[in-house]
Design goal:
310 residues, alpha+beta, Immunoglobulin-like, 2 domains, six-stranded mixed beta sheet, 18 strands, 26% helix, 31% strand
């Protein structure tokens, strides 16, 4: 658990910044996760509300547990992790968490958790509002600029421009031909790639003739992890399962930190299939759609976010 806390805070802290209602608060003070039983939070001017999965809280917010209930708290400024026991209530303060009643254990000190938080915050915010430039071709087509893949997560994806088109994927000196499909997303699993960093591009073909190439676009890079790095990814995935077994949102953030954007997307999508009401953190799914150039999915997700935030 102690080795996991630094990156858990790094990847999760930025989540809260997506919520419109929190835009003016700038920074949260506490992240709540590993919810068991009945856990509720209270913010100024509102009523007690149930915490279902992950939640960010701010100064003066309160959280309480009922009988046979508990949760984990990560406090931003103090760098401490807390376990709030059953029948307890706390108030969030800038310099710590104050116990009102009940019992609470403070666990490990969190070290070095700031990282690139503001960059990730800005990226998540912008992803809700940016639009796609109009294409000069008969279709819009692009692929992610930089991506990491490995034996455990070998898929590269892009938006299908139509059922009449095939594709040629070029990774370094490796060439892969991808047949046409009716599926809205092309998902292609690479194989026999040696560890290293490659330039890559995708060519679009119609009737076996190239109709679009990424040669004139910015260089795109694909990094393939070695066996040790692949094992580290799997160990991290298993470690998350020990911390919070069903939290595919934490898993998605972990993958995103590691550059495994396709795996992150799949984890985020699974989270929202299970918990569609958790709209505050939807901008992070929007962001990975934006990174992956999945224009239609991004647009649909923005509509979904705005529709439940009016």
């Amino acid at each position: 658990m102690s080795n996991l806390i630094p990156w858990i805070w790094i990847i999760c802290f930025s989540i809260c910044l997506s919520a419109d209602g929190y835009a003016e608060k700038i920074n949260p003070s506490c992240f709540v996760f590993k919810i068991q039983g009945n856990v509720s939070y209270l913010q100024s001017g509102s009523k007690w509300k149930k915490v279902r999965r992950n939640k960010f809280l701010f100064e003066k917010d309160r959280i309480k547990t009922e009988k046979d209930s508990s949760c984990q708290l990560l406090h931003q400024q103090s760098g401490k992790s807390y376990h709030l026991k059953p029948n307890a209530e706390v108030v969030i303060q800038l310099n710590g968490i104050k116990l009102i009643y009940g019992e609470m254990d403070d666990n490990q000190i969190v070290a070095g958790f700031f990282g690139n938080l503001m960059r990730r915050f800005d990226d998540a915010q912008r992803s809700k509002y940016t639009t796609t430039r109009r294409s000069l071709h008969e279709f819009k087509f692009s692929t992610i600029r930089d991506i990491t893949l490995c034996d455990a997560f070998p898929e590269l994806i892009w938006e299908n421009v139509g059922k009449d088109y095939t594709y040629r994927l070029i990774v370094g000196e490796n060439v892969f031909n991808i047949p046409s499909t009716n599926e809205p997303i092309i998902r292609f699993s690479l194989s026999n790639i040696k560890p290293g960093t490659y330039t890559y591009q995708v060519e679009v073909l119609k009737n076996s003739k190239k109709v679009y190439s990424q040669e004139d676009q910015r260089v795109r890079t694909l990094r393939w992890l070695n066996k040790h790095e692949n094992l580290d990814i799997l160990n991290g995935q298993n470690a998350i399962a020990q911390v919070d077994p069903d939290n595919s949102f934490l898993l998605g953030n972990y993958f995103e930190e590691k550059g495994l954007i396709v795996a992150a997307m799949d984890a985020y999508r699974l989270f929202f299939e299970r918990y569609p009401e958790e709209n505050d953190i939807r901008p992070f799914l929007i962001k990975v759609y934006s990174d992956l150039k999945l224009y239609k999915y991004k647009s649909d997700e923005i509509d979904r976010y705005n529709g439940t935030n009016k």
